[in-house]
Amino acid sequence: xxxxxxxxxxxxxxxxxxxxxxxxxxxxxxxxxxxxxxxxxxxxxxxxxxxxxxxxxxxxxxxxxxxxxxxxxxxxxxxxxxxxxxxxxxxxxxxxxxxxxxxxxxxxxxxxxxxxxxxxxxxxxxxxxxxxxxxxxxxxxxxxxxxxxxxxxxxxxxxxxxxxxxxxxxxxxxxxxxxxxxxxxxxxxxxxxxxxxxxxxxxxxxxxxxxxxxxxxxxxxxxxxxxxxxxxxxxxxxxxxxxxxxxxxxxxxxxxxxxxxxxxxxxxxxxxxxxxxxxxxxxxxxxxxxxxxxxxxxxxxxxxxxxxxxxxxxxxxxxxxxxxxxxx
Length: 328
Ligand SMILES: [Zn+2]
Description:
By secondary structure, the protein is of the alpha/beta class. Helix content is 39%, strand content 14%. The structure holds zinc ion.
């Protein structure tokens, strides 16, 4: 009898015991690709009722790119981190958001006064690290790669052994200069593979960007948010249609107020090539590019800025999900 009671008790409070073990996502050290894979599994096991995991494709060097959905809503919004190698603090931010939202959703609690129950209507898809190859190069340098590949990496990095400035993917393509929206107009930047700014021979040449575009069509998001660093700026405009520009600007203003990030002025000549440029053009729906952290010069933002950025962004996912309810 006692055994039976214990089994029933375990079934009832088992998941609570798992939660009580403390947070899964550790944001106090550089967030690596292997950490990401480990955490994705742990999150799915801990929150089976609210988290679903998918793989959108593989990088050029063969790493799987995970996507994590929080919520059970049939409609979606999409959040992306680490388009750029040196911007992995955006992965820490999104992973933390996934865990916090899953905890709140299962307990039906609010996050910064925002109801997590919105996730019953609108799910949030996260791709926390679109560019794991680039992140690994930036964090670990060439020793993490096969000897035969090291020479090419060095050449793409201007023969500099310091890889902290690495922005591109694993084969020297800048993933946020790859999307078919004004791509032809991107004139500046190197004409061959490089640690930054090389736009590729044609749009969606990089496997990572092709996978993201395919996935985006598949989930049909109502709003997209693509996190970058640095400078505490919020981009929201790329030739938005007249019928929707005011709607998008209003959301941008709210997002700017929530994060304290300065709203970027619509440029006179928008160059394009970025994910949100493409999303705005293709879907006629809002997309935002927040640049987290105070400005750092050609490197990753320091870990010390994480808590401040988390405070600013903690509510962004739920706020965007709320805004999505009004989008067609
Ligand atoms: Zn970036």
